[in-house]
Amino acid sequence: MCGFAGVLTAEGSTREELESLTARMTASLIHRGPDDDGIWIDPESGVGFGFRRLAIVELSAHGHQPMQSASGRFTIVFNGEIYNHGDLRPELEAAGYRFRGRSDTETILAAVEHFGLREAVRRFVGMFAIALWDAQERTLSLVRDRLGIKPLFVSRQGPRILFGSELKALLAVPEFDRTIDVDAVAAYLRYRYVPAPMSVFRGTRKLLPGHILTLRVGTSSIDGSAPYWSVAEAVEHAAADPFAGSGDEADAALETLVSDAVRLRLQADVPVGALLSGGIDSSLVVALAQQSASFPLKTFCVGFDSAEHDEAAAAAAVARHLGTDHIDIVVTGADARAVIPRLPSMFDEPLANASQIPTYLVCELARRQVTVALSGDGGDEIMAGYHRYLQGSQLITRMRRVPHGLRRMAAAGISAVPSAGWNRGYGMVSTLLPRGRRHRLPAGKIAKVGHLLGESSDATMYRSLLSAWQDPCRFLRGTACDASPVDAALERFSGLPLFERMMATDQVTYLPDDLLAKVDRASMAVSLELRVPLLDHRVVEYAWRLDRSHKVEGSRGKRALRRILYRHVPRELVDRPKTGFTVPLGEWLAGPLRDWAGDILVGSQDDLLDSEAVAAAWQEFRRGEDHLADGLWTLLQFKAWRMEWNV
User: Which among 128, 131, 164 is positioned nearest to 146, based on CA atoms?
Assistant: First the structure.
């Protein structure tokens, strides 16, 4: 894992000017690559590359970047790992290519020379962001992996095009235009993240997953990227070639794919471990990794002093069964809260997923022992692990049968009851429910149902389930909420059944722009490379070929993953209600974080947010409307981000 930054300029710049600018941008990324750095400048072409290296494979100078191809035509900076690069080398060697070292970067360059860029990236299995200069064609190509595991930002600033692994690199340029994109903020307040290709800054974009953007000196647009892979294409191919075997055959094929994905991601010249929460996904990844390893794998878990949020005991039980070298620590609420002031710097674009706190803590723990760690991220999105897929799609389907007028009346009735009333009522009856069917934060879930009832279509109903705020533009001065990329994705997949439509939309929006952005920034903040085998594109494509019955059993998702896991771990160790990897946000905002939150939300002025609307939401929460905690977190993280970056 590494970080890079660079510039392509249409106006004449001296070598010294390009070196100074590139060095300044690259220095901001030292956390992504503390082991080595490098700069390459071509003043005649007006291009500069900077690189920070976290050495994982080929620790010698043969892995140094920026790197040039043997012919001198191509120069590359590259963040990520190409796990199958060793499998590609024999074909390239047979074609006459000779390699100086063992780095995957060198393999990329040879593959691009031999196959061409588009065909080369289609052969790669891995996670990657690439910047490639072609001296012959005088073009800069920016490439992002299929699922968006690795980030890549690009911005047009006058005659310059800036690009980098994080916004920090672009913000390091004094002339960078920090004008906020208000439409992006509206989308952020609704979804808790800024959906690509938007960024929080006007004139700056996130390259879409699975896309290549090719730029020439003097080009006027950064919006012309083209896909080489897409979720839509995977869905289309799966529909034409669905898996036709039995359940056992489907499980066996999936286990083979996931086992290979895990095996490939154990490759490294540095210590490798795994994050283990004790849930289905991380337990499966650890089980298959331990099966492939010739030594006890190091596994890591962070426990909390709040029983409702603590999975440490479950993780330890799985670790004992698998024989891993398990390390866990219990952190207090004070320990977790101490991370909060660091979040705006760590996440240089607003992100309001509160699980960013425990994610950072477990990555910090792992980095004390290893440089690479595997995680189970992605299982929910590809194998229907979220309650909203099954229960939400069922609820929406039933609601459609009720006339809209009646639904709106019911919604008004629900909203008329305060959260405290719903919580008290639910508390009285919840003891009669099976343990696995009880819910945390019942008032919040009931409020979601109320909002859903008031919507008129499948798409807007699902959007209401995803929304931190149902009307985010009430917090923005004089702004109308335009359709966001999430709305566009919901429309793009409108031909799918609702259940699959939800999953496909999440895979192109929430997965790269929230979950994977969180994982990347939290792990890179401590210079840890985090690998996600369940998001190997071959696994994702295969998952789309599986019928829903392979994903859902009764009221639970991830059926196939569960069945595979039971072959390695007794089901009683992993069969328990889904906890989620989060913190008691509402309790903190009502208790130890109350003064801090109040000072930011009410005590600080903001020229973009409507102060009266923000203050009113805070007072509602103070009166007991605890379901507003998630929404308030979006406002807090946005305001804290503005203060941190002087925007």
Answer: 128
pLDDT exceeds 90 at position 430 = no
Mean pLDDT of the 539-552 span: 97
Q: Are 477 and 608 in contact (CB under 8 A)?
A: yes
Given 2, 301, 363, 473, the catalytic residue: 2
**Can you give the residue ranges of every domain in the chain?**
2-229, 231-583
Report phi then psi at 175, rounded to 5: -85, 5
Residue ranges in 454-593 assigned as alpha helix (H)? 458-466, 485-492, 498-508, 510, 516-524, 537-545, 559-565, 571-574, 585-590
- 363 in active site: no
Mean pLDDT of 351-368: 96
Residue of 68, 108, 70, 75 lying closest to 89 (CA atoms): 108
Pair 142, 117: CB distance under 8 Å: no
Phi and psi at 6, nearest 5°, equal -170, 180
Chain Cα centroid distance, residue 3: 17
Distances (CA, A) of 429 to 425, 433, 437, 438: 7, 7, 12, 10
In angstroms, rounded to a whole number, what is the distance separating the alpha carbons of residues 50 and 30?
A: 11
Alpha-helix runs per DSSP H in 274-332: 280-292, 312-322
Residue 556 and residue 548: Cα distance in Å, rounded?
A: 12
Please say whether the beta carbons of 126 and 82 come within 8 A. yes
Across the strands, what pairs with 155?
Answer: 162, 204
Query: Which of 126, 102, 87, 176 is CA-nearest to residue 1?
Result: 126
pLDDT digits (tens, 9 = 90+) for 253-290: 999 999 999 999 999 999 999 999 999 999 999 999 99
pLDDT exceeds cutoff 70 at 434: no
CATH number of 2-229: 3.60.20.10
State in words which class domain 231-583 has.
alpha beta
Judge contact between 629 and 585, C-beta under 8 A: yes
H helix and E strand count, the chain:
31, 17
Residue 52 or residue 585, greater confidence: 52
Exposure b/e, 112-122, CB count within 10 A at least 16 = b: bbebebeebbe
- Judged by DSSP in three states, 243 sits in coil
Q: In 3D, which of 559, 357, 304, 284 has the Cα closest to residue 275?
A: 284
Tokens 């008329």 sit on residue: 416
- Our CA dihedral for 411, 413, 418, 424, rounded to 10 degrees, sits at -100
What is the widest separation between alpha-carbon atoms in the chain?
75
Distance (Å, whole) CA 132 – CA 381: 31
Mean pLDDT of 516-526: 98
Mean pLDDT of the 491-518 span: 96
- The 3-class secondary structure across 547-584, one letter per residue, is CHHHCCECCECCHHHHHHHCCCCCHHHHCCCCCCCCCC
Q: CB atoms < 10 A from the CB of 212, how many?
A: 19
Distance of CA 359 to the CA centre of its chain: 12
Residue type, 493: F
Place of tokens 């008290």: 424
Q: What pLDDT is attached to residue 481?
A: 75
